[in-house]
Design goal:
Layout (H helix, E strand, L loop, with lengths): L1 H18 L1 E6 L4 E4 L5 E5 L5 H15 L7 H15 L6 H19 L16 H6 L1 H7 L1
Parallel strand pairs: 1-3
Antiparallel strand pairs: 2-3
Helix pairs in contact: 1-2, 2-3, 3-4
């Protein structure tokens, strides 16, 4: 297991170096910042397994992946898709479940704010957001 963690840590460090991203401390939830002047920075949880690894990739995806300036839910889905496409390991069922729970949380956040004058945009039915929500159903069907 420690060997896998080292592989994931090395991969995150390589991606950060490749894209000029500074690793700036730890954050339990993960955070990506694009500073004025172009400096890129992420704060991520310590990589102890796949979930924290995919959170790190997700934060990198916010900075370098496509669809970064999309509305919030779409940008979140785009970053998760980038993470899944660039991972050095296949996500386990638990990791996929974690991603789905996070997407469901973003959706609940948006649905609870639909009363606002300018509500958060919920993605159209064809957006990747909805297919990512199916990750857990794929696992149950398998």
């Amino acid at each position: 297991m420690r060997r896998d963690v080292e592989t994931m840590e090395d991969h995150v460090e390589e991606l950060c170096e490749e894209h000029g991203i500074e690793l700036a401390g730890s954050s339990g939830r993960g955070r990506a910042i694009r500073w004025r002047g172009g400096r890129l920075e992420i704060s991520i949880p310590a990589i102890k397994g796949q979930v924290s690894y995919f959170i790190a990739l997700h934060e990198i995806g916010h900075l370098v992946g496509p669809g970064r300036s999309a509305p919030r839910l779409e940008a979140e889905a785009n970053a998760w898709l980038w993470a899944l496409q660039h991972a050095a390991v296949e996500p386990t069922t638990a990791t996929r479940r974690s991603i789905v729970r996070r997407l469901e949380g973003y959706l609940a956040w948006a649905q609870n704010r639909q009363y606002r004058k300018v509500p958060p945009r919920i993605p159209d039915s064809g957006h990747v957001f909805w297919s990512l929500l199916e990750l857990e159903r794929e696992d149950r069907a398998a």
